[in-house]
Design a protein that fits this description.
With 317 residues, the chain is α/β, with parallel strands linked by helices. The chain has one domain: Spore Coat Polysaccharide Biosynthesis Protein SpsA, Chain A, CATH 3.90.550.10. 43% of the residues lie in helices and 15% in strands.
Length: 317
């Protein structure tokens, strides 16, 4: 194992968020699998990100800071892919964390399934809550990224942190498109494009990533600390905490399902009515969730603009 011959290239796109980035890096270092390189692409960072990365003193980790700020995740991820040396590529959002066995399980699955080109695993998403809730294990969590019957669905969000791909597959699909050119997020547009191009998806049934979505937390970029990340990082290797997370997720997911099924029947009628239109968009190679995103947020890139505003970042010019 050398930094010049990694099996996995892990890519993190980041911008002025060292207080969260350090936890993502720690989760990679805590992995049970070690033959990787970690490529961190700064979107013209102006904070202490470079020193944060350097403090880990690991030759497998390298930091590249772009000269111009794109204000988006797509460009840093595309640069990261161009630098990747590994046979496999994984992405990790700067606010997410891998469970310790995630990379090992993904490698095993790929090596045992020659037809697999894209792996998407479920993730455990922590819902926003108060710090005191963590002290009493009252955190709320849901399972996300579970595609129905092991078949890709454009309506099920698999965040980039949950992907594991053969590098050759990335080139079959092409680069990430920029946020301001899309109604949906670039990650979900890329997955949809991969599916339309006929790439073989596999959906292993294990939770591989802990998701703490910054866009759901007001001023998360300005606070410069995260009690949630601090609480979970030292427990990710503990099977007990994973059991608790999955238990909470099962309860929350069941509750949500009940509410949608029996207390919001209008949603079913709207979905049924829109189904033919969704299928038409799909045939036209337009992500079918574009309609929902347009109705909720407005024009292209508006979803990202809203997320930036909520987290304390300036609007993209």
């Amino acid at each position: 194992m050398t930094p010049n011959n990694p099996l996995i290239s892990i890519i993190i796109a980041t911008y002025n968020c060292s207080h969260l980035l350090k936890y993502a890096i720690k989760s990679v270092l805590n992995s049970t699998y070690n033959n990787w390189e970690l490529i961190i692409i700064g979107d013209c960072c102006t904070d202490d990100t470079e020193s944060c990365v350097a403090n880990f003193e690991d030759k497998r980790i390298r930091f590249v800071n772009l000269k111009e700020n794109s204000g988006q995740q797509a460009k840093p991820n595309n640069v990261g892919v161009s630098l990747a040396k590994g046979k496999y590529v994984a992405f990790l959002n700067q606010d997410d964390m891998y469970f310790a066995d995630h990379l090992s399980l993904c490698v095993t699955h790929m090596e045992n399934n020659d037809d697999a080109e894209v792996i998407c695993v479920p993730g455990v998403q922590i819902l926003p809550g108060a710090s005191e809730d963590l002290n009493f294990d009252k955190f709320k969590a849901v399972i996300v990224g579970v595609h129905p019957n092991g078949r890709y669905s454009p309506f099920e969000v698999s965040v980039a942190s949950s992907w594991f791909l053969r590098k050759a597959s990335l080139y079959k699909v092409g680069e990430w498109k920029t946020e301001n050119s899309l109604y949906v997020t670039p990650s979900q547009e890329w997955l949809f494009r991969a599916w339309k191009k006929g790439l073989k998806f596999h959906f292993p049934e294990y939770a591989g990533v802990l998701i703490i979505y910054s866009a759901e937390r007001k001023n998360s970029y300005l606070q410069k600390s995260s009690y949630e990340h601090e609480y979970f990082i030292n427990q990710l290797n503990d099977p007990i905490i994973k059991i608790k997370l999955l238990e909470q997720s099962a309860i929350s997911t069941s509750n949500q399902r009940h509410v949608v099924l029996y207390h919001k029947p209008l949603r079913h009628l709207l979905r049924a009515g829109a189904y033919p239109f969704y299928k038409l968009l799909e045939k036209l190679s337009i992500h079918p969730n574009s309609l929902n995103m347009f109705l909720r947020w407005g024009g292209k890139g508006k979803f990202i603009s809203n997320a930036r505003k909520k987290t304390g970042l300036a609007e993209i010019q």
